[in-house]
Amino acid sequence: MFRAFDACCDNDEDVSPPKSPRRDLGNSSDENSCQMIIDNSENVLKIMRNLYYHKEMCDVYLKISNKEYAAHRLVLCASSDVFQAMLMKPEWTEWRESKIELKELPQCENVFHLFLEYLYTGRILITHTNVIAILALADKYIVKSLTRLCLNYMSKHIPHAANHNQLFSWLQYALNCGHKEVAIMCQNYIKWNFEAVANTPDFSNFEPEIFSNLLQQNDLLIYNEMVLFNCVSRWLDLQEIRLKQLGLEQNEVDKHMLNLVESIMQSIRFTMMSPAELADLILLPLVKRYSSFFLDKMALGMAYHFGTLKGDKEIDPVQFTPRLYTCDRYSTILSIEKVRDLPSYHVSTFVFSTHMSTCESDSDKISEWTVDVYPKGVWFKKCLLIVWQGTLEVPEEIKPTVRLSLTCREPKKEDFKVRVGILLYGLQGGVQHVLQVVEKECYFNPTNKIMVVDDLLPFEELNPPTSKSHKYRSPYLIGSDQNELKINLIITPLSSL
């Protein structure tokens, strides 16, 4: 037999399977080769599935509440570091037992069969309602591959979770268990889509500490500060309802609510409200109820607008820092339709104006802006540059980038500082949302009138290869045919106070 095998080969080279079979699969059909890679992995998976479904040769039983799951020590130990320690190390009382009782949270009990099936088959059904329970089991039993799958699912379905009242439970779990990337993505979604999130039933589940931290952020996206005040007031009303449902005495509820109002409303920037809005606050039931707290804040706002704050060093400078306000005073919508059909190096130009002060006494200060958006790359044509040494030829250059150029049309003589926020919209599951925010702080003056942002979003998102152009749908495009680029440009003045 061995001689016959040797005879079929042209030389004595090693005929053992290569170390990386997948790399050589493409050559396995060569008729002149005596080597062939056999991929029988599907059959192996079938055997593993049969072991799980038919409960053959089980040597350990996992009991959870009133349910019992038959399993195999080998599979459990190979898949989970915790099961390996539990079933293989003498220090654990379970290592000799054939029946092991596990304590799981109720929501984890409901998906334990899915978790166990994954250990055998590598397949699992993940939804927005069960992903946290599955992730909790993966974290508890250190099944790293499943943890990665769950986190990847969450990172791609945050708008869906928000639309189905799961976002705050996702955020809470991610923060508690150290999944920082997903936690940041959830927090960003809340900050950049705050009004939509505040109108969901899930809003009442926002933890006070996390909520307070979010309200301190400058990049919180909101129509104006008055709208934010109303959202926070609604959250406070929901918290009072929850406290009463817990059966607390009224004096305990009142004490807790006072602490909540003072800690949460401390982050509202009353100076960013107009005098008319500040005057309207006094009519609100919440303000009347806690008037001793709110009157000082409202007085601060009025003093700011009437210019009587100069020299006061005890005031938190954050009070004079505008957020990303989407009202017409500071922002404009830029919409480019049929993006995929635009020619290369196309430029869309927009002209608009914004107020250059948050103070009511300076409401007449307005700046004119020109915005150029290059969604299909930038082409610098060949030109001649005249310098004192003579004339230089500048060769053409093509930059594959999505560029936004902002020009101040008539800048002041002195420097003025602004924060520019560029909001990019996306679409997921029919839900339009702010997908990404790009922020820049910059100074404008007569010699520095232009701000340029390259790589606003990945060039390939709007310009996929020809082979994929008719199939690919970029998450950065919206509309019924997902072929519209929507940008919200916000320019807010940064106070020198």
From TrEMBL:
Matching Pfam families, A to Z? BACK (PF07707), BTB (PF00651), TRAF_BTBD17 (PF23651)
Entry-linked PANTHER family: HL07962P, HL07962P-RELATED
The organism's place on the tree of life at top rank: Eukaryota
Q: Tell me the organism.
A: Agrilus planipennis (Emerald ash borer)
Show the InterPro entries listed in the entry. BACK, BTB-POZ/Galectin-3-binding, BTB/POZ_dom, SKP1/BTB/POZ_sf, TRAF_BTBD17
Q: Which CDD domains match?
A: BACK_BTBD17 (cd18493)
Q: Where are the transmembrane segments?
A: none
Residues forming the BTB domain are 58-128
Task: Report what the protein is called.
Answer: BTB/POZ domain-containing protein 17 isoform X1
- Where do the segments described as Disordered lie? 1-31
**Coiled-coil positions:** none
